[in-house]
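May I ask you to comment on the folded chain given beneath this request?
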Amino acid sequence: MGEPQKVALVTGAKKGSGRGVAEQLAELGMTVLVGGRTRGARREAAAAISGHAITLDATVAAGVRRAARQIKDRFGRLDVLVNHAASLTLTSDPDEPFAALLPSAAYGPSKTACAR
């Protein structure tokens, strides 16, 4: 009997390099969970790789804990975590986009990695 299939969660996998990472993990034979805030986008991204969509806003600790419980209940474990949720829109104020980016890029990975 072979090893059980690894379970991976990728945040920010609805487009771009995050989606590319999710696709590569799926090609490696992993069960890939696409975590995100936008229902339609995460479902579409998950369907494209035969993965699973999971509601996850990496900036909200309670939501991250809920997602962690759902993953444990449904899949038993999480082997790979790719924190890729963040977006940046440049504006005329150089500080504005980075202030908006902090919740998802800085705090989100910590909350997601520490969730139980």
User: Anything to note?
Assistant: Residues 96-114 form the longest helix (19 residues).
